Amino acid sequence: MLKKPILIITLLVFIFSSGCAESSDNASKVTDTVLFKTEAVDIENSKPVSANYVDVKYRETKVNIAAPDFEYLNTDASSFVRGAWYDQRNQYMVINLSGVYYHYCGMPKSIWNDFKQAESFGSYYNQYIKNRYDCRQGYVPE
Fold first, then answer.
1. Would you say residue 121 lies in a domain?
2. Which residues pair with 94 in a beta bridge?
3. Which of 47, 49, 83, 137 is deepest in the core (most CB within 10 A)?
């Protein structure tokens, strides 16, 4: 009964030690490397970690804010805005305000650029984004 675990451990030690052995001629020696491809998965949602689906207020479907179309803005300096993502192609912004995700449609890239440079993300949001670009009144991207 103990033979299988010992065999597996021995095999793993052999694989890892053969790739890690030092050589006196390190500059010219090429060693074989064993690569293991792994994909991290969120066990609770059974989705790859590279995806980050969030519930957005006033939207029926979740949004993957980790999708390549989204540009992320780190807003750690703000106590109100806890993250913002912008999809330039669709002029679509998702923003986390105190833990609730909202979305804005038809928002020009110039507003996004100004938002990124704002001294206060919350003040800029309240003055130039809030109550504008309402997704409930127009096109909502997939």
1. yes
2. 85, 103
3. 83
Q: In which domain, by residue range, is 125 found? A: 51-137
**111, amino acid identity:** I
Question: Sheet of 81-87: strands edge to edge?
Answer: 70-73, 81-87, 92-97, 100-105
Q: What is the mean pLDDT of each run of 10 residues along the chain (142 residues)?
A: 45 44 44 37 53 93 95 96 97 96 96 98 97 85 82
Do the domain assignments include residue 19?
no
The DSSP secondary structure of 13-57, one letter per residue, reads HHHHHHHH---TTTTT------------EETTTTEETT--EE-BT
Cβ atoms 59, 103 nearer than 8 A? yes
Cα gap 39→16, rounded to integer Å:
20
Residue 68 lies in a domain: yes
